[in-house]
Amino acid sequence: MKYTKQNFMMSVLGIIIYITDLIVDIWVSVRFFHEGQYVFSVLSLSFMLFGTLVVQCFSYSWFKADLKKAGQESQHCFLLLHCLQGGIFTRYWFALKRGYHAAFTYDSNTSNFMEEQIDLHKEVIDRVTDLSMLRLFETYLEGCPQFILQLYILLGHGQANFSQYAAIMVSCCAISWSTVDYQVALRKSLPDKKLLNGLCPKITYLFYKFFTLLSWMLSVVLLLFVNVKIALFMLLFLWLLGVIWAFKKNTQFCTSVSMEFLYRIVVGFILIFTFFNIKGQNTKCPMSCYYIVRVLGTLGILIVFWVCPLTIFNSDYFMPISITIVLTLLLGILFLIVYYGTFHPNRSEETKCDEIDGKPVIRECRMRYFLME
Hints:
Blueprint: H1 5-34, H2 38-69, H3 76-83, H4 87-105, H5 115-157, H6 162-189, H7 199-226, H8 228-248, H9 257-273, H10 284-307, H11 315-343, H12 355-358
Helix pairs in contact: 1-2, 1-4, 1-6, 2-3, 2-5, 4-5, 5-6, 5-7, 5-9, 6-7, 7-8, 7-10, 7-11, 8-9, 10-11
């Protein structure tokens, strides 16, 4: 288990995407405000603040847990940093500082890879995995809603400024990057978890997630044009189902009851957009049911939109969007089948429970109880 130079460069790219995403979101909100579109400005800013606040809560909770585990007292400076929304930057600072030391300073060619070196690499990998989990939270709490909002504004008004196009592109990059980076980091952090090696598995996994997400988010945008209340009710209903599913599975990710409750709320939100194995188990049946419902829901939205043409929507967009929704959904399902049939590290053990939660615990860490795949 080593933290390599390639891993370090991925971490650097991760913070660049994170900062760019924040800057673009603020830029879009300010632009809407100056144009007198106060509702869109508030919504855009609210999505960003909600995602950031939830991420800061988890980050500080993990800092406290790590300090307690190390026998140290909780430092008030960490609380202040998180209150000032600096938790992620603090984590990136520690991860990059120690990561540079692990990747570039130590000589990996020495005959004796000393225990101190192993501990350093393990520490850095755990820090990077924490960041990947937090970025995943932020992506689905802020990135996906932001993407839907910007598409809704673009299609509804028929024109957009550069900041909106930038927000859409950056959201796509953030969603794609965080999803793949999370999966790679999670597997690397757990010694008994098979790694996602090679470019083809990563690209296939990326396309599976991206295309299924894009198809669903476009469908939600169309439903918003039909009726905002119906669309919000559907999203609320799906969120409640996800939360109930998390409670039914009795997830055990957080040490405190309140943070575990918040975690299950976040899991419900993530399950609105994509499928994750929230606890170690054979996911063939739940995943099949999830995507069958997704296909039926997407087709239902398209049929409703065909039957009820809207004057507020630019009809020139409808045919290309309908085709895009269908094609991306088909491509997403195709890449899903290819990934799980050919590239998934556990494909030879698909009849067993997830190897992380199904086997005796080798090393206690929160990653072991996080979203699996």
